[in-house]
Specification:
With 158 residues, the protein is of the alpha+beta class. The protein folds into 2 domains: 112 residues, Serum Albumin, Chain A, Domain 1 (Orthogonal Bundle); 31 residues, no CATH class. Helix content is 33%, strand content 13%. It has 5 helices and 6 strands; from the N terminus they run αααββαββαββ. The strands form 3 sheets. A two-stranded antiparallel ribbon has the order 1-2. It has a two-stranded antiparallel ribbon with strand order 3-4. About 3% of the residues have low confidence.
Length: 158
Amino acid sequence: MAIIDVDTVKVFLQIPSTNTTKDDLIEALIPEIQGDIIEYTNNDFVDPDTSLVVWPAGIKLIASRMIGYSMAEMAGGGGSIGLQSESQGGYSYTRSSGQADGEYPATILKSLDKWKYARTLFSTIQSQSRDRRNLNEHELAEDEYFVGGVDGVPYANQ
């Protein structure tokens, strides 16, 4: 399942639905952006229970921003995108983009950080909390470990 469709991108980027001149470009960028998101976050977004790709809420907006940025870069900078400095008469504007050519702005990438997994040499680190009995959240949810509890807090079978 694709992360986003052309019509949704056009809504987020405020492109009229009757304007079909960029549809092929958007369609071509969707798998590229999807790959960039998976690579940046080191997260394939596969639900372990169903083995299906499940995109979290909110990621479509970020994907559309990445597509809009890529389209503007292909069109020659898209106005102020990538602008380092500008002077007009007595007015001067300078900003540091903090990015190399072809990279997404830090504001876009930062919005993906909540889905990001750390990379290691051998595998991906995913935090998993355990209680003092060394049971993880999935083991705690299984009924076989508990017989009852006090004030809604279950305790393990002996």
